[in-house]
Design goal:
The structure is a single chain. By secondary structure, the protein is mainly β. It has no helices and eleven strands.
């Protein structure tokens, strides 16, 4: 079955850019709605952005718009989160997830283990 693994996290400085990757090692992601979530220290998990299976439809919360860009390469079974102009408030564990819903579903059946992003000032 689908197994998702995030990578690309690390320690960066405010204003820097980095790209997170989410790769499936257990199957194709071509039919899945994909999304990014994050969980900051002491806070609950929050949704950031999602992309349709064909990559044509994207939705992002206000905090991610303009700075974060979600994309996917189904041929590589990989999804990405480009993070620009990061700030210390972006410090969190970032998770990728996959859903069988075409767009409006709220359930994500598959999750990665998370990758830590730490932004210093």
């Amino acid at each position: 079955q689908v197994q998702l693994v995030e990578s690309g996290g690390g320690l960066v400085q405010a204003g820097d850019s980095l790209r997170l990757s989410c790769e499936s090692s257990g199957g194709s992601i071509g039919t899945y709605l994909m999304a990014w979530f994050r969980q900051a220290p002491g806070k609950e998990r929050e949704f950031l952005t999602k992309i349709s299976a064909d990559g044509e439809r994207i939705f992002s919360v206000d905090s991610a718009k303009g700075r974060f860009t979600i994309s996917r390469d189904n041929a590589k079974n990989t999804m990405y989160l480009q993070m620009n102009s990061v700030n210390p408030e972006d410090t969190a564990v970032y998770y990728c997830a996959a859903s069988t819903s075409r767009w409006h579903g709220r359930t994500y059946a598959y999750w990665g283990q998370g990758t830590q992003v730490t932004v210093s000032s």
